[in-house]
Design brief:
The complex is a heterodimer of chains A (175) and B (204). Chain A has helices at residues 2-24, 37-46, 53-59, 73-78, 95-102, 115-126, 138-144, 166-170; strands spanning 50-51, 66-69, 85-86, 107-110, 132-135. Chain A is an alpha/beta fold. Chain B is built from nine helices and five strands; from the N terminus they run ααβαβαβαβαβααα. In chain B, α4 (71-76) links the parallel β2 and β3. The chains are: A alpha/beta (175), B alpha/beta (204).
Amino acid sequence: MKHLNLLILGGIVVILSIVFGIATIKVTGKYRFERSASEMLERVNTRSQYLGISKAKDLTQNDTVTFIDIRTPKEFDGYHIENAQNIPFDRLLDDEHIEFLKNDQMKVLYGSTSVGSNAAWMILTQYGYDNLYVLDGGVQDWISEVETKDIFRDAPVTDEAAKFKFTEVMNPETN
Amino acid sequence: MNTRVILSIILISFGSIAAILPKQKTSSVQLDADDLLREIRLETNLVSTDELADLLINLDPGLMLIDVRDSVAYSKYHLPGAINIPLNQLLDEKWMPYIDQVSKNNIFYSNGTTLSSEAWILTRQLGFKNNYVLYGGLNRWFETIIKPSQPGSMATSVEIDRFNKRKAASLYFTGSSGASDMNSAPALPPVPRKKKKRVAGGCS
């Protein structure tokens, strides 16, 4: 009988530890990532999310395409692309916006530059969305009407185009 | 049936369930999209060029610079001591000891802030810590540290102090080529999280 008692005790300990383990698992249900980091890296490497300014300008004529301004409401009120909607970066995952962002229609995210909107694109794409694009150069280039096509030849995005010849600046005597 | 047999069956089935369950990585606390959004908004992942200049001048032993541009851009020019992990290779097994570790503070950089932010978001999705982004990248490094612009006549004393500090930093980084050569050797890999056992025996 002594063995049986030990066995029961052991069983209780095992069950308790399993219950404890389940109870302490972090519940991440609502905003769980749908795509793995390596899937995301593959997508990032294609750079297909970026839209140049001229292509984006053509799309403003298209009623099925929505431009989404991720800057603050104050910045949005100061200037925004015609018919754009304002969803500030920190409100992207709010219930009211997430349903709208989810539908199949094409959406172009933009901010001051493309760094913030690309981060927004990554988060929403990791979260499972497929219909989102990023305006290369952001509002800054949109206003100054910078044509980004040429820059694409040596940099994936305008933000990554080198503004200096780094080697020559560091070693002026060798030139 | 014997109680003992029933209990054994229960215990064995628990054991087999535990064995089948997917292996949990101890290093990664599972993040979700909302956590990531909050961290990016708070900008706690960003390091300024002035902060980086301080770290480099003080030869901070905890600093690891990671250039995420391609190898051609890296070999033409890179920051002192930086190693090269091109973004498209970031998740290769051989780089894991560098990006998933607890002994160094990694700062990702590229020409701008796009590639480095992408690298950071991917490592953060995996739950890795100790990774940061150089805000503005090499472009901002050259604009603010290597070629700082003189503040105008309306500049505040804070701006003038900052300019003087940047000017001194510029001299440090562009000064004698001997000193910069000394600093430009790529850093050694950090201690991996799990030490592999050294192979014992053999002749020496």
